[in-house]
Amino acid sequence: MNDRSDANGVRSNDSAKIKLARSGQLISPLSDDCPRAVVLLSGGLDSATCAAQAIADGYAVTALSFDYGQRHDRELLAAREVVAALDIKEHRVVKVDLAQWGGSSLTDEALSVPTDGAAIDESTDGSAIPSTGIPPTAIPSTYVPGRNTVFIAIALSLAEAQKAAAIYLGINAVDYSGYPDCRPEYLAAFQHLATLSSKAGLEGNSPDLVAPLVLDSKADIVRRALKLGVPIEKTWSCYKGETAPCGVCDACRIRDAALIRVGRDDLVSPLGKVSVGERP
Fold first, then answer.
1. Each residue's pLDDT tens digit in the chain (280 positions)?
2. What's the CA gap between 61 and 38, in Å, rounded?
3. HSE-up of 65 (CA within 13 Å, CB side)?
4. How far apart are CA 217 and CA 174, in angstroms?
5. DSSP alpha helix (H) spans, 12-96
6. How far apart are CA 107 and CA 114, in angstroms?
7. Whole-angstrom Cα distance, residue 79 to residue 139?
């Protein structure tokens, strides 16, 4: 069995116990006896691709979304559409109000959502870097304090209750943001915690934290999504909650640049075609 890990022990492209489907295409679980995975599903491109990967890896999926006090519920609506499109049978939405104490432009409307923090680096397959061209010295305002720590802790509780073998996370360490809770070493530490903090862990059955996209560029993620049949048009990555993606926030710009790079201009936001630049 192929079980690849990076230097920090975080599995990137293969799950721990289920061999990747040889076809690479989206498949349905063969029976109710399939091992279960909890997938953190925000409704964005990355998490939807992660859910499709878990299904392709042979897991029966429980999708877990959070109403955490974000500026809008557009991504939760997208999560429901993705669940329906991928034929996921169980979808849980947990409310945990991180907006009570703010600290992020995604939870506090008094803070501005950044629109000029990312420059697209064509030399790295469409990944994003700070507009200064150097690694970030300051974490952007879109970082939500403790968000992934809270989410993964709840996912571990659900996974243990369901006897799930894995938790799939759509986090990515390549993009410009430098979020501290999207790094491989953070996941490796949480994996260690999972073995110490639960009955399942003490019995040697703690779920594996699987981050299939952690070292992918955004263009790589788009390619994977297309291969797996992810309904990209139903996902929502924009930091704003309007009827259409704004095309100018950092999340839109990174996503649109990757879509253009892989030749899927048809999926780019209308304003994104202008902000990123139309190809001849």
1. 334 444 444 444 433 333 333 233 444 444 557 899 999 999 999 999 999 999 999 999 999 999 998 988 999 999 999 999 999 999 999 999 999 998 898 888 888 877 765 555 545 555 554 443 434 457 888 888 889 999 999 999 999 999 999 999 999 887 656 788 888 899 999 999 999 988 988 898 899 999 999 999 999 999 999 999 999 999 999 998 888 999 988 899 999 999 999 999 999 998 876 655 544 3
2. 6
3. 26
4. 6
5. 45-56, 74-85
6. 13
7. 26
Residue type, 35: P
Which pair of tokens denotes residue 95?
């409310």
Please provide the size of the chain in residues: 280
- Reading the block at residue 151, the tokens are 């989410």
Q: Residue 84: what residue type?
A: A
Say which amino acid occupies 52: A
